[in-house]
């Protein structure tokens, strides 16, 4: 039995291909070097993009010029004439004002404008110049501290007036409701007690 098992046909390992480990290690090293060189070349070709720091808008965002207007929308119309808010920088349309503001303040839009999301740090000289320009505006009369205080005070007074009016309206509504409910209740109570009403008993 053992003799027959030793005579079974098996796999012939004598003709297996022999791999030269050193040769393939050398090839792997060469390939890695070539990849590194190609990577460095690509980096050298594309210098890092220098973007300008963020700056404030010098225009007013138009959100309400098309409010309340009727517009016929067709699928073949260009994007700028479709419903929603059109961004001409990114050439896309945004469906509502909140998302439009998010878009124009977002990274993609700012990059398209050539700006990074970093804010430039103001120098001492820039701050002093800004103060000087504000002082000139103050002296010119277009902007004064008293005007600002007066506007804040006026807004507070208007808000208080609105609150007072709301309170008065609520009180009036409560009084009206109570006045409407009272006669019915009185009539019901009088009927239960056997009174026909509170009329005078004097005869004319």
What features would you highlight for this structure?
single chain; two-stranded parallel ribbon; 7% strand; 4 strands; 204 residues; mainly alpha
In short:
By secondary structure, the protein is mainly alpha-helical. It has 6 helices and 4 strands.
Helix content: 40-55%
| Average pLDDT number | 76
Characterize the biggest β-sheet. 2 strands, parallel
Distance separating the two termini: 145 Å
Q: Strand-and-helix sequence, N→C?
A: HHEEEHHEHH
- The share of residues in extended strands comes to 5-15%
What's the β-strand tally? Answer: 4
Catalogue the unreliable spans: none
- Structural class label: mainly alpha
Query: What is the overall silhouette?
Result: elongated
Radius of gyration (CA) equals 42 Å
Task: Please list the strands of the largest sheet in the order they lie side by side.
Answer: 1-4
Question: Counting H and I runs of at least 4 residues, what is the number of helices?
Answer: 6
Could you give the topology of this structure?
Layout: H1 2-6, H2 21-45, E1 52-54, E2 85-87, E3 92-94, H3 97-104, H4 107-112, E4 115-119, H5 124-140, H6 145-193
Parallel strand pairs: 1-4
Antiparallel strand pairs: 2-3
Can you walk me through this structure?
Strands 1-4 form a two-stranded parallel sheet. A two-stranded antiparallel sheet has the order 2-3. The radius of gyration is 42 Å and the shape is elongated. Among the domains are: 77-119; 122-190. It is built from six helices and four strands. The longest helix is centred in the C-terminal third of the chain and has 49 residues, at 145-193. The protein has 204 residues and is mainly α. The model has no long low-confidence stretch (mean pLDDT 76). It has helices spanning 2-6, 21-45, 97-104, 107-112, 124-140, 145-193, and strands at residues 52-54, 85-87, 92-94, 115-119. Helix content is 54%, strand content 7%. A hairpin with a 4-residue loop joins strand 2 (85-87) and strand 3.
